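Continuing the series of single-chain predictions for the mutant panel. This is the parent chain; the variants come on the following pages.
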Amino acid sequence: MMTTRYRAYQAGINEQVVEMAINGSGIRDTARVLKIDKNTIISTLKKANNPAPSCLS
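Parent structure:
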């Protein structure tokens, strides 16, 4: 099993961030619950909202 240094890189964290946002949790709430930085939450949500250009074709 691979261990990660930062919690934000653990499997499933990105999905939890998006799910919490859909269910109305704020950025600070999500950061507190998942124990990751609020800037990471913002970055994750931006990436989830803007698909990569290669996915569009």
